[in-house]
Design a protein that fits this description.
single chain; globular; two-stranded antiparallel sheet
């Protein structure tokens, strides 16, 4: 589980640019969804399939 605050930005096409540390831990393909209190939740595809 990854917990913390991370700075992010969007590219000119509106895509989220993930910090390298998160990409290494969560993998190349993942699901992002709106979480609680204005947070984003990110799940690896494998973790989401278990959910």
């Amino acid at each position: 589980m990854l917990i913390g605050e991370y700075e992010h930005s969007l590219d000119v096409k509106g895509r989220l640019i993930m910090p390298v540390k998160l990409r290494e831990d969560i993998g190349d393909k993942f699901i992002m969804t709106k979480g609680l209190d204005g947070c984003l939740f990110g799940f690896s595809r494998r973790r989401m399939e278990k959910f």
